[in-house]
Design goal:
Aminopeptidase; 8-stranded mixed beta sheet
């Protein structure tokens, strides 16, 4: 989730002005005073043999939340005080996706997950780190992502991930008889929520807690009249990211705007066209 700058690069390396203009025109953003930057290529964490670059911009000032609302519709994600989206040459594998809440209809699979978690209490709390959350987060990282960078995070790192946010950040907590079972870090947008990161008790496999976090957000958005749940990037070639295609009412961002996921197949060629 963190932004990788690259060894020979840093936040002071500006993206060429032509690329900045092209990015803002494509996304429909009006940000004349915002400076976008590009990171140096680093090995892609999702597809072996490819390189990853990001287009990033700092979120700051009293308009940070409104600016991030627009960026989210343009396929950006957030890490701490930066918004980013992939800008990889010759590759369009990272596809921004979101769930259209008003079109969402439960399937047999999602009903099973909902029924399996009826005993869990859920609440939205302020974006503040707690030791209870961190214990669950650390155990999840060790069990599921032991070879990743996040597995070495200490409490201070975790607190920074949760609290170093210039936008409207909350945590959805899910509690059962044994305490905190799952948590989802989210950002509140003007058209829904952005699911930033979820973690859960991996030992409770029958619950499918990762999927339940997303399904609960859909139900919560429906209760509040919010139209979208933004899920980040779908990557067909990555087992960790391909699961998002299973959710009903999924949309993906195309050069023509947001379109029904199933109606518009994804190809690498889009990046080169």
């Amino acid at each position: 989730m963190d932004i990788t700058w690259g060894r020979d690069d840093g936040p002071n390396r500006e993206l060429p002005a032509r690329s900045i203009r092209r990015a803002t025109v494509r996304t429909g953003l009006l940000a004349p005073l915002r400076q976008f930057f590009a990171t140096s290529p680093v090995p892609c964490p999702y597809i072996e043999g490819l390189a990853e670059r990001k287009l990033i911009v700092e979120l700051s000032g009293n308009v940070a939340a409104a600016f991030y609302d627009d960026l989210s519709r343009a396929g950006f994600r957030r890490s701490h005080r930066y918004a980013y989206r992939p800008a990889c040459r010759g590759c369009a594998a990272c596809v921004p996706v979101r769930i259209a809440v008003d079109r969402f209809v439960h399937t047999r699979s999602t009903r099973r997950i909902r029924n399996a978690n009826r005993d869990l209490g859920a609440s939205l709390v302020e974006g503040r780190a707690t030791q209870e959350q961190f214990r669950l987060f650390a155990a999840y990282q060790r069990a599921r992502h032991g070879d990743g960078e996040m597995a070495s995070m200490n409490y201070a790192d975790y607190r920074g991930m949760i609290e170093d946010s210039p936008v409207r950040t909350r945590i959805a907590e899910f509690r059962g008889p044994d305490g905190l079972a799952a948590a989802s870090l989210i950002d509140l947008l003007d058209d829904g929520v952005s699911a930033v990161y979820s973690f859960f008790d991996w030992r409770q496999g029958r619950r499918s807690l990762g999927s339940w976090c997303i399904l609960w957000l859909v139900e919560e958005c429906r209760r509040r009249g919010w139209p979208y749940v933004y899920l980040g990037y779908w990557i067909a070639e990555s087992a960790k990211m391909a699961y998002k295609a299973r959710f009903p009412a999924l949309e993906r961002l195309t050069p023509e705007g947001w379109r029904d996921f199933a109606a518009a197949p994804v190809t690498y060629q889009e990046a080169a066209d």
